[in-house]
Design brief:
Helix content: 25-40%
GO cellular component, one term: SCF ubiquitin ligase complex
GO biological process, one term: SCF-dependent proteasomal ubiquitin-dependent protein catabolic process
CATH topology of one domain: Leucine-rich repeat, LRR (right-handed beta-alpha superhelix)
Number of helices: 11
Strand order of the largest sheet: 1-3-5-6-7-8-9-10
Protein name: F-box/LRR-repeat protein 15-like leucin rich repeat domain-containing protein
Structural class: alpha/beta
Organism: Anopheles maculatus
Shape: elongated
Largest sheet: 8 strands, parallel
CATH architecture of one domain: Alpha-Beta Horseshoe
Distance between the termini: 67 Å
Number of strands: 10
């Protein structure tokens, strides 16, 4: 049994006790308060044996709360204690992300399905990034923003390593361009954000009639050198949400107003 009771007085009063059967006490509100307390004061627990001994369910809740209450992780020791094989969703937004962190993800989270690296303090290398993605074969959702190491070569490796990927958000990754289309075209992508990248009409034409073009429901190509020619090549049978704000589109004649289309984000050209 794990009784997690947050003390208002001092860290030493907050210590879990253990018996043979691990379970949380019945009050969900108390559980939430305790999780938030630990997440907020996590640095105090770094050298305490109890943190590593906590059940995976509690570790996962603490991990997910750190980004909310502490603006991410900024060392490797705490993730080393908390990461475990039951985690399927990880958010490292605003964290300091090193090769060590990426290695921990690959080693400890083989069932990872969703990874968010958006707006992190990127301190990893190309080698570390590539090594990680090759070991996350079950990944379905990846979110990265404004990372110079995310390029066509990475996208090619990602497509080959993660065949179940259906959500890819690479906003402001400037080194992603048209060459990425060849490897993404055969993927079952449902959501794709390549806004503020270097893709052109060539990218859209390359995916339009392939598997990717036929499964896309949510596409954002805003602030890319896209024209009506590229958009008109798309299959509009599945698209529900599309954004092309900041592009050189003079009218909406090229948009397929099919039965599924629900939302358009568009900048009217002068």
């Amino acid at each position: 049994m794990v009784d997690l009771v947050a003390s208002h007085a001092h860290f030493d009063d907050f210590k879990p006790t253990y018996t043979k059967n691990f379970h949380l006490f019945s009050s969900s509100s108390s559980t939430t308060s305790c999780i938030r307390f630990v997440a907020k004061n996590l640095q105090l627990y770094k050298n305490i044996e109890y943190l590593e001994l906590l059940p995976a369910l509690v570790k996962n809740a603490i991990f997910l709360n750190v980004v909310r209450v502490q603006k991410g992780f900024h060392d490797e020791e705490l993730p080393r204690l908390l990461l475990n094989s039951s985690l399927t969703r990880i958010n490292l937004s605003t964290s300091t992300i090193t090769d060590g962190i990426l290695t921990l993800l690959a080693e400890k989270c083989p069932h990872l399905r969703s990874l968010t690296l958006t707006e992190g303090n990127y301190r990893f290398t190309r080698t570390g990034l590539h090594a990680m993605v090759q070991r996350l074969g079950k990944l379905q959702h990846l979110y990265v923003k404004n990372c110079p190491l995310i390029d066509d070569e990475f996208v090619r490796l990602l497509a080959g390593s993660c065949p179940q990927l259906d959500t890819l958000d690479l906003e402001s990754c400037k080194n992603v361009g048209d060459e990425s289309a060849d490897c993404l075209s055969g993927m079952p992508l449902v959501r794709l954000n390549v806004s503020h990248t270097s893709i052109t009409d060539k990218f859209l034409k390359a995916i339009a009639n392939e598997r990717c073009g036929k499964t896309l429901e949510d596409l954002n190509v805003g602030h890319c050198p896209i024209t009506s020619e590229g958009l008109s090549a798309l299959s509009w049978n599945t698209i529900k949400y599309i954004g092309f704000e900041g592009c050189s589109i003079e009218d909406l004649e090229i948009v397929g107003f099919g039965k599924h289309l629900k939302y358009i984000c568009w900048t009217i050209s002068n």
